[in-house]
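Following up on my earlier thread - several people asked me to post the actual chain instead of describing it. Fair enough. Here it is, all 67 residues.
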Amino acid sequence: MAIRSGIFLVAGLMSILFRKQFNNFKNHMLEKFHMKNRIKDERKVYFYMGIVYILISIILVVFSITH
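Reply from S.P.:
Thanks for posting it. Predicted structure:
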């Protein structure tokens, strides 16, 4: 469980800290696949997703400590 919680913690921190780069990469890939109509700014979504990942990480740590 500790390894899973670490993975979620790293994913959450990365999606919060590097949300602009994630958004740019997603938009670049959409351009490559000729889906320009789906390009939009989703930096706020990456922030919320990071918070959810960090919460999952905390829940997994608490669960692994109690069992």
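The chain has a mean pLDDT of 93. That should answer part of your original question.
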